[in-house]
Amino acid sequence: MKKIGLVVCVLMAAGFWACNNAPTNVAILKGQVDDYKNDGYLLLISEKDGENVFDTIQVQTDGSFSFEVKGSKNSKHGLYLEYLGDDDRSVINCYMIPGETTEVNITGGMQDVTFFEETTRRYVSTPTFAGVTQKECEYLNIYPIHEYKFKNEDGSPVTFKNYLSQIKERQIFLREKLKGTCAEFAEEKNREIDAMPDNRKFVYAWRLERDGNDASQDVDFMNYVNSIDINDTINIAGRDQSTIVGNVVRFNLKTHPELYKDEPEDVREFCYIRDYITNPKVREFLADFEMESMMIMGGNENLIPAFAVYKEISNNSEAFKRNEVTFNRLAKLLPGVKASDFEMQDVKGRKLHFLDVIGKGKVTYIDFWATWCGPCCTEIPYLEKLVEKYKNNPEIEFISISLDNDINKWHKKLENDQPTWTQYIIPDNFNSTFANEYNIRGIPRFMVFDKEGKIININAERPSSPDIDKILKEYISKNR
Q1: Kindly report the CA angle at 456 between 454 and 460, in degrees rounded to 5?
Q2: What is the pLDDT of residues 410-440, one digit of tens each?
Q3: Is the dihedral of CA 181, 182, 183, 189 positive or negative?
Q4: What is d(CA 106, CA 83) in angstroms, rounded to the nearest whole number?
Q5: Which of 96, 97, 174 is nearest to 142 (CA)?
Q6: What is 343-478's CATH superfamily?
Q7: Partner of 8 at 20 to 30 A CA spacing, among 176, 303, 321, 377?
Q8: Where are the domains of the chain?
Q9: pTM exceeds cut of 0.85
């Protein structure tokens, strides 16, 4: 059996009613890890006031575990159980109700997984559920990424009508799987199923473009695009819905390259919002949303000109005030600017500063991660390959910096993986000076600095990117 690490995330789903009225605020999570070798761990991540709280679940030597999950009376909890093998990590979703017990028995093995027509072999965990919430748990563990068909065998694109019929088939499938779940759970998931067509229609355009086809040639798709009123507030009824009008903007810019052709891509979007959306409420909401989204990713060399146009559109809202604070911070972190410093420590517990390890005559590629982050751990094997490939190149160095709260878990992960590149940790997680200075709201995050410690890219490509080798060589050649 492969060595394992199990990460359990409990998230309070605020605003929902529970499926029963049990007079308690404790739900029980219990189960069994198949062939447990006493070398794994369970990490419980609970959401409280928008922040993650971590607890460790004790696994017995026989692989069994039992844990009390406390929560408000008459509330539902979403529980995410991540199972880490040596090669990859997969996710198990558990549904918990105060006053009830959720049971999950876990087995696992290597399987072929296909995503975007590419098949990779990865470690996949298989859960078996029991208890009152069995049906809910089974529904949550339906593979979230459905492979819709976007091109025919001859390479021609499927029609928009065909794509919508595939979505309808998926809706029927999911509703069938909801049978037997409690009323409140089914009601919530049915709302998500109802929203699937609107949330996925523009995926048709982006996927056709990826395959070298053009959605603008499909009459039905263009009728759909032209039916959307970008000045109607119904299309900004919530953060999820804001993408409808935003997608129209991006699609129109894609199909009309002559618009603002002398402006960078990010700036074009704000110019379009400024000039084509006349409803002030829609215009300001979308501009605020798009600027926030741009800065969450760390910004880029187009941030300053994009913010200048954004400021013409929205300069009074509370969202603008928040974005302006973030912009003023990120403007100090654009390419060519000297890196901002922060404190961290090495594997021996010695404190040092970020500027002590970058800007030493090499390009530095840095991975910001944590042991509890599934996507972070997925990138580690790819990073390992990069390190091996460039191990004899004196012009580049690779560093990993963990944001783990628990230093012991970080050490255990390093002991298991035995990485050959330098490792550091910032134990304060997202509350650290680093996270605030660099606007880190999610990981993994990759950054590149030049040989003088100046920023090249604070939102760099992942190690798993198919173009990463080419990109790194460009960084190196420009910094000789």
Answers
A1: 135
A2: 998 899 889 999 999 988 767 777 777 777 7
A3: negative
A4: 9
A5: 174
A6: Glutaredoxin (3.40.30.10)
A7: 176
A8: 5-134, 146-213, 228-334, 343-478
A9: no
